[in-house]
From TrEMBL:
It is found in: Membrane. This is Uncharacterized protein. Its main location: membrane. Keywords: Membrane, Signal-anchor, Transmembrane, Transmembrane helix. InterPro entries: TBL, TBL_C, TBL_N.
Length: 401
């Protein structure tokens, strides 16, 4: 009798626990994590479901940025307070409110304490640099002795001596290795072609080739360079694999998908299991009335309304800024089944047409030469909310081991 009952008993005992653990591991990261000061409040069952990436911006006039124009890690073109961008007070009065919970602001000291003796790396294009600057200026609130740091191939970063924490950015705009090449036999005879950008889809760029044992947390992104305006007909992208050009040549989006698959597999393989890996999804652009080089503009006073978002960003509507959602599909496809988690800032940022540097670039003639900047974000600004979310996800992951 007992021998018959035991397997059943085990099933009844173990199955619910497994299910519970499964729900915890899959759903909990999306809930607001409790502050470490109140461990007794950790409930036995998951609280109400909460998705930090869905919600709305609510005006909160008491809200103030955590840093100002004097943060030494600013990049001039994004230092909107210094550049006297209009509306900065209002831009930073909007608070992101997820659908079913509150998003707490990061506690810089608490977070750095949790990260003690650990390092955080960003790898990707200038939108990840934009993110990094927000992160550094926020964390510096807890350690004003923060020093510039630039080693191991990093483009820029900071060391926080009170906590022995380094946070840095490795510039690798396509993640894969790419280089300008003037000699390319297949080009002879083609009108106007000056050379090619060779992309080795299976080789990571040197800038982040040797960081595997340094960072405990990594945040990747790519995508903003995958545009036809960056790689026009005269200087096309040519995709290589195993050192040989791929035949037939890949279209840009196919090439991007292929390289993403390789980079994702590489990241999965090279970084140890205990390294927390995130992939930040696309940051939307807000060029209105034309591309960046066609007088595209983003002089908005208010965030967009929810009903306007599809009009702006639905790829089928064929508008100027349609690429973000399209690229997200490609990236999400590539990330399926991997240990890399997505940091989906796209939806929340789609609203914020009002929060780019626009014409306030801090340099005479910059607008005449480059057009408005409706791609990067003013700092302080929207990426500060990305920081609130990222730090919450990191804290949760570290506490769970
Ligand atoms: C600082 O952190 C590094 C890891 O990033 C560690 O190797 C080193 O021992 C730490 N230094 C101190 C003084 O704890
Ligand atoms: C941009 O605006 C300037 C000044 O109004 C105008 O001369 C130029 O033709 C415009 N360019 C485009 C591409 O629309």
């Amino acid at each position: 009798m007992a021998s018959k009952l035991t397997p059943k008993l085990i099933t009844w005992l173990i199955l619910p626990s497994c299910l519970l653990m499964f729900f915890y591991s899959t759903l909990l990261p999306l809930y607001t994590t409790r502050s470490p000061q109140s461990p007794t409040k950790i409930p036995l069952l998951p609280p109400e479901p909460c998705n930090l990436f869905r919600g709305q911006w609510v005006l909160d006039p008491s809200r103030k940025p955590m840093y100002d124009s004097t943060c030494p890690f600013h990049r001039n073109a994004w230092n909107c307070i210094k550049n006297q961008r209009e509306n900065m007070g209002r831009i930073n009065s909007w608070k992101w409110v997820p659908e079913n919970c509150d998003l707490d602001r990061v506690d810089p000291a608490g977070f750095l304490n949790l990260m003690r003796n650990k390092n955080i790396g960003f790898v990707g294009d200038s939108l990840n640099e934009n993110f990094l600057v927000s992160f550094l200026c926020t964390l510096r609130v807890a350690d004003e002795g923060a020093k510039k740091w630039k080693r191991k191939g990093a483009w820029r970063g900071a060391y926080f001596p009170k906590f022995n924490v380094t946070v840095a950015y490795h510039r690798a705009v396509l993640l894969a290795k790419y280089e300008w090449q003037t000699k390319w036999p297949e080009l002879s005879g083609q009108d106007g072609v000056k050379g090619i950008y060779r992309v080795d889809i299976d080789v990571p760029a040197d800038d982040w080739a040797n960081i595997a044992d340094f960072y405990s947390v990594l945040v990747f992104n790519t995508g903003h360079w995958w545009g036809y305006d960056k790689f026009p007909k005269e200087t096309p992208l040519v995709f290589f694999k195993g050192g040989q050009p791929i035949h037939p040549p890949l279209e840009m989006l196919d090439g991007e998908f292929q390289q993403e698959l390789y980079m994702v597999a590489h990241i999965d393989k090279v970084f140890p299991k205990n390294v927390h890996k995130f992939w930040r999804l696309q940051s939307p652009r807000h060029f209105h009335g034309g591309e960046w080089n066609q007088n595209g503009s983003c002089l908005f006073d208010e965030p967009l309304k929810e009903y306007q978002l599809d009009m702006w960003f639905d790829p089928n509507k064929n508008r100027v800024n349609r690429e973000a959602r399209k690229l997200n599909h490609v990236i999400e496809e590539a990330l399926k089944g991997t240990s890399i988690r997505t940091l989906d800032v796209t939806h929340m940022s789609e609203f914020r047409a009002d929060a780019h540097p626009a014409i306030w670039l801090g340099k005479k003639d910059a607008v005449a030469v480059w057009g408005q900047d409706c791609m990067h974000w003013c700092l302080p600004g929207v990426p500060d909310t990305w920081v609130d979310i990222l730090t919450q996800l990191i804290s949760y992951n570290l506490e769970m081991g």
